[in-house]
Task: structure prediction
Amino acid sequence: MNLKSRWFGWFAASAASLIASAAHACDAPVSVCDHRTPSGLSLIANGRAATVLVDADASPTVRDAAEALAGDLARISGSSASRIAAAPVPGRSAVIVGVLGQSRLIDGLVASGKIDIRGLAGRWEAYRQIVVDRPFPGVPHALVIVGADRRGAVFGAYDLSEKAGVSPWAWWADVPVRRHDTLYVTAGSRIDAPRVRYRGIFINDEDPAFGSWAKTRFGGVNAKAYAHVFDLILRLKGNYLWPAMWGKAIGMDDPASMALADRKGIVLGTSHHEPMTRAQAEWHRGAATRTADGGAGGAWDYTTNGANLRAFWRGGIERMMARNSGVLGDQGYEQLVTLGMRGDGDEPMTEGTATTLLETIVTDQRKIIADVTRRPITRTPQVWALYKEVQDYYDRGMRVPDDVTLLFSDDNWGQIRRLPTEGRAPRVGGYGVYYHFDYVGGPRNYKWLNTNQIEKTWAQMDLAYRRGARQIWVVNVGDIKPMEYPIDFFLKMAWNPEAMTPAAVAAFPKAWAGATFGARLAADIAGIVTDYARLAARRKPELVDPTSFALGAVTADALDGGEWGRMVDDWDALDRRMAAARARLSPGQRDAYFQLVDYPVAAMANLYRLYYAVAWNRRLAAAGDPRANAFAATAERAFARDHALVEAYHARAGGKWAGMMLQTKFGYTSWRDPPRDVMPAVTRVPGTPGPIRFRAAAPVRGNWAAVEAVDFTRANDAAGLRWTAIPHLGRTGGAVAPLPQGRPSTRVGDNVRLDYDLDLPSGGAATARLYMVPAIDTRASGGIRVGVSVDGGPVKVVRMDLQVDRPDWTRAVKDNGFPLDATLGPLAAGRHRVTLWRIDDGAWLQKLVLYTGTLPPDYLGPAVSVPPRRS
Result:
């Protein structure tokens, strides 16, 4: 067994163990299982669910969650009898939901000594679930869900729903709820609480898809639509939302939306360029209509129009404090106020650095907040987003008060740009991260399909957490659909980043697939969604065109598909696996499967076939070869199939998702999306084409030896660091780096190293090429350094110093990989030991190539390595 097999075997065993514990958790406290356990509770007995108890005067937030839980149990049991009550029902088991200190039912149990709430009081969003015998006369058992606050009670209730079999995606992806005549809850007690304070999503770039869908189904992006958004966030144990903002304003489009968010327990914020709770659209509407709520109009320019801007912002804070009555209150809506200012339309505010101006703006905004709220400024949570050029202001010395959360950002493509440095004094407001699963901007928009690897998300957010970004995690999810899978991962990780270990990451796909489609197909579907993300991340579909990959040789009797052909072969194989799994589904699972697995795989495979056919059409047509005509027809059929797939998506679940797949993907000529899909131009050649035959590609050979990073020969763990492989991270077999992340730099003398044995085919001046997972130096210290040596010789230090919008960065985000070359001097043919030395944090290696002479320009090549010796 080589080391790759050993590593993958370890991960598989760990994943199997975690999944088994989730599926058969009847030995863990307060777990849901399908057979009776000692001192347990009957959640569902003979098709009848336990009564859900909640105090009659409980907060609307808690009552709504209790109603939802009762509805979930009714769906599972098939019975709606005694769904919710304010008093116990004799002879029936009960589920009691409430907030500590706000529930007579629960506080009475505390006073009588029947429940222990130690470690709960005062904790943010914490909850305890505890099974109690004979809580009230005539009641045999109760499961008591005690929240430290209102959202703690909500999360405790929804946690039970999910364990009982109601997916958070039951509405959003039509995941069926499995019926049970009997379900039990094991005895005991458990407590849980989030590690990240604010955890949420940003609906963005929402037209034409999300916006069209909401208008068709609900009449607009209104409270009816947001009710489902709020429910999804809470079921995923999130609490935070940046609402849709392009041409939309949650506070004006439907006033009921903000009130509903507050009732449900959702903390509303606004995006990085919408300060003081005001949507950008409100400014433009106010400018057009001269409304009296602060939208007085004029330029979005603080130096020339500061008075109008201050009036506009004051209106936002006054609305935050108004609540339903319209009277200013002591608390107001629970919102997180964005500070600062960017230019109109999410553009830079001014040319160059505007540090002094921004400091003035923030000071003035905080005066408005304190004046309107009539309370100390530190009692209103605030955030300053260091997005794009605003990070430059921070880097060059701009500071905001200590109680304001600093929200760092990624580069819009999944690489975090800056994080707190080690040793810096903690901030009262803490730090957060704004991350992207969707983006409008260079080098191309990517909005259509999920192209995000959970392994990459884990690597970046684990680094962020370990470096102290624990106050806010918010992710741009575009239209929500079809980002279901990475959203699920992101918010589950945000709840407890410490529990999302490498083994848990490896286990996640199968656990998710099992919870969504059942244990029988879990392994197959997990493999499909994992390989889909890996293939999609090679190059986002909006960046694919006929020139993306190289074609092979052309002869009169056969064609060699080259790199293009290998890409299409990978997608074809995945498409077949997807269809095989689909054939084994029950009818009730097919709508969910189509949305979550079928459509993404089929549509991406079809896109690759289309561009592959166009590439061959243009190659052959240029040579006057009539075989070009067959490829023209193939491309046109693929374009028509894309339209058919979109229509099939919109027709699924009775047309529930009509409009949600309207994002364009064909016809890009710049970073901006075209208004509609455009069929790539093809050419027909006079003549009758002969048969199209492909020949197997010749093995790729040359003056190199290559090895997957996870196939290392020897690892030397030191300085509290352990080399760890993350399967599937990157383009091929996975990536490797020393963990834990977040540690300071090490020196060569610390001896944190990784050895690879390689056979070099021919001698000469040698180079080691390290194909890295793209990452940005979050310390701004001149790049991420890695040391390389050969055969015990001197260590050469190479740096990955990616700067946003520069050519190296553009290449890296397009290819999901970046080459670093270390010149090693002359080497003889034969076996050599190449050693990788850890210096800086965040350096993840995908592949190592040792070569003499030159490599093909975009060589990522096969892993042609000797079997590593285990040591």
In short: The first strand starts at residue 32 and ends at 33. The chain has a mean pLDDT of 91.
